[in-house]
Amino acid sequence: MGQFCAGFVIERTDSLGGERALSELWVFGIPAPVGDKRFLLSKVSSRRWEANGRIELPPGVDEIDVFVRSVTGEVAGSAHLDCKKLRTPEPQSGHRHSQELDILAGGTPSLRISWEVVVVSSEKIAEDDMLSACLNEEGLEIAQRSERTRSLSDISESISLFHRAIQLTPEGHEDLPRRLNNIGGSYMRRFEHTGQISDINEAISVLKRADRIAPEGHASLPGILCNLGGSSTLRFDRVGDISDINEAITALQRAVRITPKSNADLPGMLGNLGLSFRLRFGRSADLSDIAEAISALQRGVQLAPEGHPDLPGVLCNLGGTFKLRYLRTINLSDINEAVSSLRRAVQLTPHGHADLPKQLNSFGGSLLARFDRIGDLSDITEAISALRRAVKLTPQGHAELPKQLTSLGNMLLSRYKRIGNSSDISEAITTHERAVKLTPERHAYMPGRLNNVGIAYLQRAERGGGISDLSEAILALQRVVQFTPQGHPDLISRLTNLGRAFLNRFARSGKYGDLDEAVSHYKAAATSKFGGPQLRLGAARDWALLLGQYRPKSPEILLAFDAALDLVALVAGLEQTVQGRYTQLQGVSGLALEAASVACSMNRVDKALEWLEQGRCLVWSQLNNLRTPLDSLHLKDAKLARSIAETSKQLENAGSSQEQFEVGMSISEKISLEDEARTHLSLARQWDDLLRSARAIPGFENFLMPLPCSTLLQHLPETGPTVIIAVSERRCDAIALLAGLDVPLHIPLPNFTLTRANEYRASLAKQLQSRNLRVRGGGDTTVPDGEFTGRGIRPAPVEAGGEDPIHHVLRGLWSDLVKPILDVLGIPKIDSSSSRETLPRVWWCPTGALSFLPIHAAGIYRGPKHESVLDYVVSSYTPNVTALTDRAKDSKTRPIDHCISGLFLTNQPNAPGAKSIPGTTDEVRSVHERAAELGMRVLKLEGSAVTVKECLNQMESFSSVHLACHASQNAADPLQSQFLLHTGSLNLATIIQSNLKNADLAFLSACQTSTGEEKLSDEAVHLAAGMLAAGYRRVVGTMWSIDDRRAREVAHDFYEDLWMKREQGCDRGFDGSLSAYALHRAIQQLRLRIDNSELSLLTWVPFVHFGY
Prior knowledge:
Blueprint: E1 2-12, E2 22-28, E3 37-40, E4 42-45, E5 48-56, E6 63-70, E7 75-82, H1 83-86, E8 96-100, E9 111-120, H2 122-149, H3 152-167, H4 176-194, H5 197-213, H6 221-239, H7 242-258, H8 266-284, H9 287-303, H10 311-329, H11 332-348, H12 356-374, H13 377-393, H14 401-419, H15 422-437, H16 446-462, H17 467-483, H18 491-509, H19 512-526, H20 533-550, H21 556-571, H22 578-585, H23 591-601, H24 605-615, H25 618-626, H26 631-636, H27 638-657, H28 667-695, H29 709-712, E10 722-727, E11 732-737, E12 745-748, H30 754-770, H31 805-825, E13 841-846, E14 859-860, E15 867-868, E16 874-877, H32 881-893, E17 903-907, H33 919-933, E18 938-942, H34 948-957, E19 960-964, E20 966-968, E21 978-981, E22 984-987, H35 988-992, E23 1001-1005, H36 1023-1030, E24 1034-1038, H37 1044-1058, H38 1075-1089, H39 1094-1100, E25 1103-1107
Parallel strand pairs: 10-13, 13-16, 17-18, 17-19, 19-23, 23-24
Antiparallel strand pairs: 1-5, 1-9, 2-3, 2-6, 4-5, 6-7, 8-9, 10-11, 11-12, 14-15, 20-21, 21-22, 24-25
Helix pairs in contact: 2-3, 3-4, 4-5, 4-6, 5-6, 6-7, 6-8, 7-8, 8-9, 8-10, 9-10, 9-28, 10-11, 10-12, 11-12, 12-13, 12-14, 13-14, 14-15, 14-16, 15-16, 16-17, 16-18, 17-18, 18-19, 19-20, 20-21, 20-23, 21-23, 23-24, 27-28, 30-31, 33-37, 37-38
């Protein structure tokens, strides 16, 4: 027989109002093996709390202490109990003892504790303990069976058995946490089966109780925390309360932290942790959550040996996470990794396993995402097959069935968009409607599933369906928006879908009320503060273009384009690699041009200039920002300036060096790559924080922000205008910037169109392709010297049958584009007696399709009235205005170090895998010989005599470089564009990371060094722009292949002209400031040796000058 204190009650005895939150009753002074005990307090009313359980009063214990704690952990009251008075020979049943609690000084309210003393036989205690253990074991067997059978009755029976076991288990029993964990796991499984919210609430409640009573080091604590995290994740997925997923991550991180690496449960815990981070990313759109998810999941895969029961689930979560990141970054390696991981997860999951439908669903989703990107029909066919199998394996009434149906509907819809089979869209609509019917009204997924129904009807309406389809779409999508709370990340896409539906109805009805609805919804999506930047950018672009088309005079159009262009920088942020940024920018190519054309039509040429500068050459501008001199900031905050400089260098390296996943990589190699990505992301966040700190300093509010028009007009070259030419579908305009003029000069060009620019570009490309003008020395553009050599430039006769394509392109550019600009600027023909230093200059900044056309060579080269740009100005190009003004400013404020000033030359005639270009040898030797005669600081290294590292070292040691070699342009990742040497390749990323603060001139005597990329026409993804970004102030490059012999002649004449007034024995340095004039005259010299035939034009036109 034993005496026990039981039925503890805490009551308030004061008359004060207000609430008091009490949570625990602690009892101290009980000797081992029982020891101190903790009881959870259940709130009965605002003034009463109760605790279940009992405390034995063993002989020899004369006193015990009790403490009551609040929910914040503070001691609310305490009491000292005399056990000798409590222990009586014959306790009276129902008799209660009570005692006032001591309240700490200043504490309120007054509290009293009461209890009763009961007698329990030792046989009864042992009997209850044995029965509870048996019930628990029986519950475990049935729970494990339910995982195989997926039987709802088995799950419910296990809950009943666990519940009876817990009732017989006293507070403080060492097995109570474990038993609470068991019943919590069964409640979770029943929720997954039925979707009843009461089950998941009960699971979280009992698991939190288990967590509270389990002491540190308890064997069940990791499992309790894992189940608590899993149940909180499930409730978040159902209800959408962000606090649930935050609590889930906290619990799972604790579980992982206290679980040994050798524990077989750790891979599953890491899998759950990764899933929780992934789900939070869906709400937060914070890339750090995705990075943490992938890190945890890759660790889980690494720790799980083949055959581990949790491996398929971890692989499934890993694949789903890669897919989610792909949707944000559009990195193809991510979606390939997702498909690979999910395929393996499905293969490792036994037929009949409860998780197989879920894994088939995820696998199909990854195939769908890849199909939408690549368009391989085998992917969508396999995806649909996987989902049909998942639906078949999911029992009727199962909570996951609507999810499988939703995925199947989406895949059918995607195939319909590609193939147009009416049976696919009909089945998609039926499937989505069935998913909605099976979803509880207040379920968190209800808006998304309704959205799918609306999109399916909208797709059918857009492909020839009736007005009834459109009405059904609008009705469904309106309900979706109504059900979606503010701040939900999917609200943007749902608003956009509804706007699209109204726009479709406007196209049919012509009713401007529908147009206004469309504009309103696009605007709401674009200006939302939540959700991913890609979705907001898409909405902003639609908003702006819609206003531009139907409300061109609306003042709101300026707000729309402002919003869109602000979002471009977020879409292609520094947290991504350079290649990733360019991939993102492909989708918004031309946006800045559309914006500029609208601004010009509204006589806001200042805004047009700002938008063109903000929305073009974004990656080079980011690199320029990372290299911004910090002298002024250093005077204000030296520590901040140093932090910015250090972080910028790390970011620059991270953006250009990160590798991609490759087939056959080990999990360790993949983890290493992900660690690099996480570091990159952390640096990007640190950079944003540093910029915020800098902008908080008075006078630095606009630090590294897009420049206003007034700032762009500062530091312009004084020797000629800068002319930006913007062409879009609606119009063509030039914007001229002149030193000393405080406003841009607007020059409308009504006779030139985007259609014409594209025609000219296609015609030129066809000619270059047909003549194989893509590598140095390729094709045949060599024109033999004729009898007219030395007698001036002779126009070519008009051929029978009309004008050839090259002459036609150059004539059109001259008549409708360049000559009107020169006329407005008042630039006359060059007087033949003018000195080279007084020749007028123009810096051309073409955009879009014009970036691929030789504006510097525009002219009429046949007939008696021949004239061209070369008769009026010396031409240079600049990727954008800032690239030019920065170099103009540097030329005045940052002189080149006298010790570095000089010329380094190298020729590489026989690079492995490339055509021999023997002319490079004579080219470099002749230039070197002439420089040496003049006493210049010059170095020549030929062929294999120079390694890649040595070449780089010499580029740092000499202000100017002449590279006579093959070059290779990588449009997908411009920093991997490279110069081909005998001993290896020198890529642009390596050059940019070098210390080239004294760089002056780069003469790139190679092929296509200024050729752009069609999908990124506004990003100047060529070597010439890259060398400017690396620090060179001026660059000579080529638009296409150059003839080996003529390249040698141009180089010789170029340097002869550059050094024309140089005397032997004078300063040994090298000055490239007159390089544009030198190239101009070198080309004129070449033209004197050839005629103006098409072949002759193709010989000299490719040579171009970039920079100051």
